[in-house]
Amino acid sequence: MRTNCFICSLRAYDFDKEGVTFAYHVKHEHNMWSYLFFLNYLEEKDQNEYTPHEAYVAEIVAQTRKDSAEKQADKEKDKAQQKDRDAARWFPINRALSLQQTNDELDDRLENIEKKLEQYVKIKLFF
Ligand SMILES: [Zn+2]
Q1: Which residues of 5-25 are buried (b: 16+ CB within 10 A; e: fewer)?
Q2: Is residue 119 part of a domain?
Q3: What is the pLDDT of residues 6-31, one digit of tens each?
Q4: 38 CB-near residues (< 8 Å, 6+ apart)
Q5: Would 28 be classed as within a structural domain?
Q6: Which domain covers residue 100, as residue numbers?
Q7: In this structure, is residue 102 part of a structural domain?
Q8: How far does residue 33's CA lie from ligand 1's centre (Å)?
Q9: Residue 42 C-alpha to ligand 1 middle, in angstroms?
C-alpha cells in the first residue's frame, strides 16, 4: 500500500511526478476506509431506498460476489474431479498389457517405414 493505491492500484510514483503527493491521494481522493464505509452503508441500507448511484454500485458488488462464488465453486468442482481421477489412476482405463505390446510393435513398424521413406527420398533427391 506504500507503493500502490489500494483502490485504483496506481503507483505512488505516478502521483509524485504530477505534483500531487501519494499521501494526499490515498487520504483524500481514494481513502480505502471511505470505500469500506460505503460498502457497509449499502449493506445496512434498505435496497428499496437506494439512490440510483447506490443501486448501481450495489448491483456491481452483488454481481462481483456472485461471479467470485461461481469461480470458487468451479475450482472446488475441478479439485473434486482431479481427486477422482487421481483415485482411479491405478485402474487401467484405456490400458492393457496385450495392447501395449501391440502398440510397441506398431511403433517399431512405423519407425522402420519412416527410415525406408527417408532413404527413398534421399535416393530420389540425389540421383
Ligand atoms: Zn487511487
Answers
A1: beeeeeebeebeeeeeebeeb
A2: yes
A3: 999 999 988 878 888 999 999 999 99
A4: 57
A5: no
A6: 96-127
A7: yes
A8: 12
A9: 21
